[in-house]
Amino acid sequence: DILNYLPSRISALCMILSAGICGYSVKNAWRIFIRDRYRHASPNSAQTESVMAGALQVRLAGPASYFGKVYEKPFIGDPVKKIEAKDIIAANRIMKVTAVISWIVLAAVRVIVITVIFGT
Predict the structure, then answer these.
(1) 85-118 and 5-21 helices cross at what angle (nearest 10)?
(2) From residue 54, how far is each of 43, 87, 103 by CA, in Å?
(3) What is the dihedral of CA 30, 38, 58, 70, to 10 degrees?
């Protein structure tokens, strides 16, 4: 959890931007992120999950079944609409754009760090 603390939050911010680029609500993605980002046993797991739930206006997580036993877990997001198959395609698109944005951000950070360290 310690090593993924910063990457999970950077990923969430990149995903919020991606949601807007893909035509989804940045405002709702941000709102659900702020509200639900800690609704998971791990401090990092719900960071991007909350953004996706907000962007797609669906409710994720909730009760889960493991080996036939149901465990109550908090929901993430609001059930504005029912999850449909097309939401999988939308989620994949948002994740692909997030990957590109993350790559650009990390490449820029690398250039800045190298410039500061080596002065070139």
Answers:
(1) 120
(2) 18, 12, 23
(3) 180
Q: What predicted TM-score, i.e. pTM, was given to this entire model?
A: 0.88
For residue 104, count other CB atoms closer than 10 A to its CB. Answer: 11
Query: How far apart, in whole angstroms, are the C-alpha atoms of residue 92 and residue 101?
Result: 14
Q: Within 13 A of 63's CA, how many CA atoms are on the CB side? A: 6
pLDDT, one tens digit per residue, over 28-37 is: 999 999 999 9
C-alpha to C-alpha distance for 19 and 90, rounded to whole angstroms: 9
Q: Which residues neighbour 21 within 8 Å (Cβ) at sequence distance 6 or greater?
A: 97, 101
Q: From 72, 82, 25, select the one nearest 52 (Cα to Cα).
A: 25
At residue 71 the predicted structure's pLDDT band, cuts being 50, 70 and 90, is very high
Tokens of 10: 């950077």
Helix (H) or strand (E) holding 104: helix 85-118
